[in-house]
Write a sequence for this structure.
């Protein structure tokens, strides 16, 4: 089925299967601890690289060729993923800074907001629902 050295193939196959199980456990742990945010594409690259190393044990030239093809198709995705993450992170930080600034201004002016509307918490006026 796999040529004269089918034992080598099955050895690589089961080694990669064990790697996949272990790598899945690692990624699960990393996700639960928030370490993968913005880095999912790099986790994919690492998994593909290990698979290509396994393929290189079987046929180095073929693995090198496929590796180059993965670089051609995957590099734009990795770069795009990093750029999108950096932009999302910058937008989030800008929003957080604006919120902190608003809260500081509110403390200085004594105005309190709820859902974007100013509240007059010092007023003793009651709501008139009979309008």
């Amino acid at each position: 089925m796999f040529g004269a050295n089918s034992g080598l193939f099955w050895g690589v196959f089961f080694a990669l299967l064990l790697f996949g199980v272990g790598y899945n456990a690692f990624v699960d742990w990393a996700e639960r601890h928030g370490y993968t945010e913005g880095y999912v594409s790099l986790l994919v690259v690492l998994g593909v690289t290990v698979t290509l190393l396994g393929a290189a044990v079987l046929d180095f030239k073929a693995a090198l060729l496929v590796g180059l093809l993965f670089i051609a198709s995957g590099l734009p995705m990795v770069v795009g993923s990093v750029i999108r993450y950096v932009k999302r992170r910058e937008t989030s930080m800008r929003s957080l800074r604006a919120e902190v600034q608003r809260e500081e201004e509110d403390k200085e002016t004594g105005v309190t907001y709820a859902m974007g509307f100013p509240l007059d918490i010092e007023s003793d006026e009651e709501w008139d629902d009979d309008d």
User: Anything to note?
Assistant: The first helix runs from residue 6 to 32. The chain has a mean pLDDT of 87. The two ends are 85 Å apart (CA to CA).
